């Protein structure tokens, strides 16, 4: 396979492109041939063109340091030129499993703010829900439009060493990254028209229409043309590009907290033509900053009185406040039970085995094998608050063990999963890099999953951390027809 793959390391991980050493999977055959015909120099030239185009288009993400004292850095999100390909049968399995999971999670959120049957039946510990920092008492008894709490979900999927898919995390509050799905596809189509022509892939364009339809369906008064706004924290937010792209593509207004005002429990947007009543707010602001009269009093990002208008039924919020309970990393362990409880079905997609460290026997087991485990702080996301045992020093493991002993209820642990690898373009060759998949599901009149979603890549050799906030990149994801 000439010099392009001469040093490609086949390791003890599932490789998306290869079956064993040098044997390409059938659905990657055309792509391999195109890459070999182009060679490394042409690929690098196209990569340079792509990087320049991303700068021109302002496709950026803000990278934060692990130390709060470190300054943030805005940069183009690393984009890997080599697409990830998912077969039709594989996608059918994922599509069914994602829809099933999101339905059950939505049932769970309704239940904990209404009847609390799952708590009464002791399938989930009551204190795990009622003492959860994301539980919002103001939501108790509130009937949200159409019963939909999570119009937009980002479910993180990994593939294990035998090729099976697992759900790694559920992101239900303000999931990010959807814009990159569309920009990745646009860049690939323009840079590799012949390669794109080789494959019949499922269209992703319907996705934003499905999201817009989902948002429209939440309008309290069933207006034929409701006013929908995207509420952003502003230009300094890490995902601001995501906000601007989605607002522009869906034709909705991009606003900050200062652009909105609440009068007589109705929300209005300030405009040059006066005040316009807002019907639906797609919010990209965390619960605690939404309304300084209800949550954090020092918030300057939200809108005073917003929760009062929401509780009165005069405006819809997507996603609903209080949904964070359902993407808590400990509650995650109970999602298969939710599926059986609410849907009377067996889970289509499995969880990664998860240990709850407030349980003494599970904590003891994890502490004795900490060098083999991934430990996560329940309330954090974006790759923060984690210990990856196999990559940690003895000092780091010891320090994390002390945290676990002192605050066991804050952490969960999972065995280190062998994330699948995909060929990625590095500085001077093509090499395997670990990947996951963020799949975006919309709950409107019918659930809809964007075909493919966002494949995220751990660009550092051997790294298992794919988050953009930790320096990871993305690649286009093709689902075959």
TrEMBL record:
- Organism domain of life: Bacteria
Annotated ranges, domain Circularly permuted ATP-grasp type: 83-458
* Record Pfam families: CP_ATPgrasp_2 (PF14403)
Give the InterPro entries listed for this entry.
Answer: ATP-dep_Glu-Cys_Ligase-2, CP_ATPgrasp_2, UCP005522
PANTHER family linked to this entry:
BLR5612 PROTEIN, SLL1039 PROTEIN
- What name goes with this protein? Circularly permuted ATP-grasp type 2 domain-containing protein
Species for this entry: Paenibacillus pectinilyticus
């Amino acid at each position: 396979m000439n010099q392009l793959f001469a040093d490609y390391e086949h390791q003890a991980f599932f490789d998306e492109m290869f079956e064993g050493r040098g044997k390409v999977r059938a659905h990657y055959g055309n792509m391999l041939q195109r890459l070999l015909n182009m060679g490394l120099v042409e690929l690098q030239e196209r990569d340079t063109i792509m990087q320049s185009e991303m700068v021109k288009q302002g496709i950026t993400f803000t990278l934060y340091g692990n130390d709060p004292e470190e300054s943030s850095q805005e940069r183009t999100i690393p984009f890997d030129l080599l697409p990830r390909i998912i077969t039709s049968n594989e996608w059918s399995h994922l599509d069914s499993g994602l829809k099933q999971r999101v339905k059950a999670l939505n049932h769970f959120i309704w239940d904990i703010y209404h009847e609390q049957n799952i708590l009464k039946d002791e399938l989930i510990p009551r204190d795990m829900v009622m003492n959860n920092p994301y539980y919002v008492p103001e939501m108790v008894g509130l009937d949200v439009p159409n019963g939909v709490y999570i119009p937009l979900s980002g479910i993180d999927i990994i593939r294990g060493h035998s090729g099976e898919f697992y759900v790694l995390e559920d992101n239900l509050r303000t999931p990010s990254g959807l814009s990159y799905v569309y920009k990745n596809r646009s860049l690939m189509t323009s840079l590799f028209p012949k390669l794109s022509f080789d494959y019949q892939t499922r269209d992703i364009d319907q996705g934003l229409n499905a999201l817009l339809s989902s948002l429209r369906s939440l309008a309290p008064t069933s207006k034929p043309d409701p006013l929908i706004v995207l509420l952003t924290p502003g230009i300094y937010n890490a995902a601001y590009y995501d906000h601007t792209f989605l607002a522009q593509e869906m034709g909705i207004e991009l606003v900050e907290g200062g652009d909105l005002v609440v009068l007589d429990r109705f929300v209005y947007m300030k405009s040059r033509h006066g005040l316009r009543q807002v019907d639906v707010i797609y919010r990209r602001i965390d619960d605690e900053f939404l309304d300084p009269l209800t949550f954090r009093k020092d918030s300057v990002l939200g809108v005073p009185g917003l929760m009062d208008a929401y509780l009165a039924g005069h405006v819809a919020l997507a996603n609903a406040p209080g949904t964070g309970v359902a993407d808590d990393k400990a509650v995650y362990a109970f999602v298969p039970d939710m599926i059986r409880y609410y849907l009377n079905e067996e889970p289509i997609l499995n969880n990664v085995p998860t240990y709850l460290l407030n349980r003494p026997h599970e904590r003891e087991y994890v502490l004795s094998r900490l060098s083999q485990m991934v430990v996560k702080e329940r309330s954090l996301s974006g790759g923060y608050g984690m210990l990856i045992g196999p990559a940690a020093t003895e000092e780091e493991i010891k320090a994390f063990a002390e945290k676990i002993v002192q605050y066991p209820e804050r952490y969960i642990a999972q065995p280190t999963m062998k994330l699948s690898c995909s060929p990625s373009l590095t500085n001077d060759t093509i090499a395997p890099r670990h990947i996951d998949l963020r799949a975006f599901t919309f709950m409107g009149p019918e659930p809809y999953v964007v075909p493919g979603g966002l494949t995220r890549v751990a660009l550092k050799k051997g790294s298992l951390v794919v988050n953009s906030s930790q320096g990871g990149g993305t690649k286009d994801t093709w689902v075959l027809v």
